[in-house]
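Minutes, project huddle
Topic: does the predicted pose make sense with fe (ii) ion bound?
PN asked that the exact inputs be recorded in the minutes so nobody has to dig through chat later. Recorded below.
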Amino acid sequence: MAIKFALRTRVMMGSGCRTGISTEARALGVRKALVVTDKALVNCGLVGRVLEKIEPSALTYILFDEVTPDPTLNTVDRGGELARQAGCDVIVAVGGGSPIDAAKAISIAATNPGSCAAYEGINKYGNPPLPVFAVPTTVGTGSEVTFGAVLTNAGTNSKFIVYGDDLAPVVAFLDPELAVGLPRSVLVPTLMDALTHALESYVSRGSTPQSRALAWFAAQTIVRHAPTAYADTKNLDAMTGLLYAANMAGAAFASSRLGIVHAMALPLGAYFHVPHGMANAVLLPYGLEYNLNDAKDGYAEMARAFGIAGSAKAKDDALALRDAVARFARSLDVPAHLSELGVKEDQIEAMAADAMKSSHIAANPRAIVQADVAALYRKALK
Ligand SMILES: [Fe+2]
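Predicted holo structure (tokens), as shared on screen:
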């Protein structure tokens, strides 16, 4: 089976790099943007700090700030309609994974007929989506370089993915000035999401030498900078490291896909509104345990990223990695069990059935059947 490694996005990096939006708009020949974000980011002034740098002679815009966590199909369809009616020729996404995923889906809805629900799956839309500029404000998602978007169908209480080879943003602006001062309540889930991307991507069946290089260095960078960032989210050096690491982990899993942790995290968002990163953070040590035998060589290599010197036995190093990841999560005050996040036993079978529909299942290094997923939810629930 062939595997692939693909990147599409030009990644601009550095403090103040958001000023480059005007230059990139001119270069691309676009004139009118739909700015996709959420109200909290508008209210805290972060969106204003992006918009104030856009030169009106380069790009005009209209604001669409209706994105919610776990963005819904309805929101995306409304955004697409607005972009079409207003004649927008580019989407500018400002925010974490939810606004960026919503923006990517809106870029499809804007140029294709009907609801975005019709484009579930891989390369299902006929017309090219609008170009997207992505400005991440958290340190986790990686959505600014990936090819898919996760949406929630509120009617059926399920999540689904739209994916396209031309759906990754055209340009990403990694501006650490926007990440500095991130509240801890956002910092922890997003950096744990990025760490999960790195660890799952590294041992995924779809991994390649390129994706493993990115994933390994992303994990090492997160481990190095997280303690400082957690102590002081205004530390520019630490927040810069985490922002770049999240992007590297995103570039890794954009091609490799992930594994059992992400497959199980998505239903926790749909059923119990557990934030995506926090679901991963709690599940990650359980997922590592599940894969221990099948992925022990990769985990042993990843153990080095956690500063574990290594022994003669890969299995021992893999166990040491699992313990180090659990300690790392505890050091950031991540709960040990899903029950602490409001998850209830009564939905486990339904969640397990949904998790099995995820494309990450096939990428996991160890084969998975539904009973395995249900057992792992129970183990993590406590
Ligand atoms: Fe994720």
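Observations noted during the meeting:
- Strands lie at 10-13, 32-36, 60-64, 90-95, 121-122, 132-136, 148-153, 158-163, 171-174.
- The longest helix spans residues 209-231.
No decisions taken; revisit at the next huddle.
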